[in-house]
Amino acid sequence: MANEEDDPIIQEIDVFLARSLLEKLYLFQYPIRPASMTYDDVTHLSAKIKPKQQKVELEMAIDTLNPNYCRSKGEQIALNVDGTCTDETSTYSSKLMDKQTFCSSQAASNVSRYAAAVYKKGELHLTPLHGILQLRPSFTYLDKADAKHREREAANEGGDSSQDEAEDDVKQITVRFSRPETEQARQRRVQSYEFLQKRQAEEHWVHLHYYGLKDSRSEHERQYLFSQGHGLAENTELIKSPSEYLMMLMPPSVEEENDKPMAPSNVLSMAQLRTLPLADQIKILMKNVKVMPFANLLSLLGSGTDATAVLRCVQQVALLVQGNWVVKSDVLYPKDTSSPHSGVPAEVLCRGRDFVMWKFTQDRWVVRKEVAAVTKLCPEDVKDFLEHMSVARINKGWEFMLPYDEDFVKKHPDIVQRQQMLWMGIQAKLEKVYNLLKEHLTPKKQEAQSARPLLVSGEQRVNMAKAKVKQNYGQLEKELQKQKAEMKSNDASARTDVPNIRIKEEPVSVEEPMDTSAHEGLNNGLVNGLHSAQGSVEPVNGHLPGGCIDRVAQELKAFVSATFKKQFVLTLSELKRLFNLHLASLPPGHTLFSGISDKMLQDMVLDTGCKQILVPFPPQTAASPDELKVYALWEAGDTYDQHRQVLLEIFSKNYRVRRNVIQNQLSQECGEDLNKQEVDRVLKVSFCSLW
């Protein structure tokens, strides 16, 4: 009673329930707008609705005269979406982004507790809401702009990749006879996400007409928010006791499953994922990602997860390919399923995908036509296999999408060995199914088991050559001792005493000599890479004898001339790599071991008729200085001299040029029309080593 006295009733208001707009009234929640903009300022161009889904799309005009509107940005967006030409299908006919589309989503699945209220003359009229829709901007125009961009890129490339070449006249056709659908299969199909999406897409849009806030039709419709009769017969629901009425207004809170936002069946949040057992978490992650390094998998599972348990579980749903884990085929294609493209059963799809995975254990590159020829599957299925684990490269093939994970291979050799045994069993099955020849598989298999990356850099090749020299050093030393003994017996009087170790003084020069030693740390019996018996060609105090200088220049000129006749364009870095390989193949004591500096090598390149091409590389490039120095043979004496000179002039102005620009420039300068194949041949002949 004391509380009631402290809170006295000031006014009693009659409440009425309006039924005229029952199951027709929706509440639209618009995005937040500036306070200066009212709904009268917004022009609705069009509106449409799907009643069953309660989905609405509104198209609103944008005030392009507003000082806050960026006109240049609006023109750029319209150009990206529609291109230069405008027609009836254009999104922005005014060549300016002057409108925006808003799409709705349900704010709450249960709106029975919400109503729209109108207060007038001491009466409160309530109308139950049929739905609450939140309107958000739709960015479908960005998808259209991306599609236009991909079309322009494809047109500029001047042709498709080798993987998308035109198919032969004779095409394989797969005939599938449909089997009677069981009740269980029908229920799975009806509950699938694809089926629900298809049903939603089949519902037609109902176009609406928008009336403004002050329109006479709007004024007329607003009258339906008031109860049409104040008699008790129409408001029997409000004749309740105070406790019942309070229960209706504030029912007890009960958490309902349908209050959770709707999501596709294949979408699972990380919070929900971590409530599942570890094996299920790994299976869901691998099924969605398909290819993943082990370190990334551990990071997704959260801190504190036992790596040993993860290794045990991941081997049940994935296989090791180039140090990375790739989901197994039977996880993606369960039993009693079939291909959506050709209807091929899951067993055949698993064999074909296993063949693709096995190919990637042998090499980083796979050709799609080769896979299709072996597996006899349709191109769409083969493309799906490749997209799971690789990336298409123009005129090369499909490359495995992740680099070789050497860290995992070194840390877990037992896992690697076990996976190799599994792949041996899979290979044996593939040989029986596809009739593969063992002699074609054995070399690739050994290469895959070497646990080394397949891409070898120039520095690694030089190190391999040095290691080979070290292995042959013992044999070479024996031959040297034999030659020295013969020389002593034949010409004892001409024998000169040569100290075991002589110190070579480097010439005082700003040019640093190249590292051209055939091997390191093996100076016993050698003087700076030369045998002591052949000290006549060794530099003394940094200078060569007169006759030796000529011999060194002749040998260096012969190497440079032969190299540029094979590869017309080379960077300084590539030329030095080839020179190191050339030195590794020479016998000990050769004149070129006397020391060749970078300046001497570059001067010799210019003396042999080559020119330096000043390619304008971007300043933010990560290339080394030696990779930025480009040299080219200007005249080779073949039929492509003129074409090559035109190309070099083009690349001296821009480091990246489109194919059609090259074709037009060649046609103008050479006076002949070159087709795509001829241009490709000129590029291949001229820049085979650089591009």
TrEMBL record:
Residues 466-493 form a coiled coil. One of its GO terms (biological process) is tRNA transcription by RNA polymerase III. It holds the Pfam family RPC5_C. GO terms for cellular component: RNA polymerase III complex. It comes from the Eukaryota. The keyword Coiled coil applies. InterPro entries: RNA_pol_III_Rpc5 (IPR006886), RPC5_C (IPR045576). Keywords: Coiled coil. Residues 146-155 have a biased composition (Basic and acidic residues). Residues 146-169 are annotated as: Disordered. Residues 444-689 form the DNA-directed RNA polymerase III subunit RPC5 C-terminal domain. This is RPC5 polymerase. It comes from Illadopsis cleaveri (blackcap illadopsis).
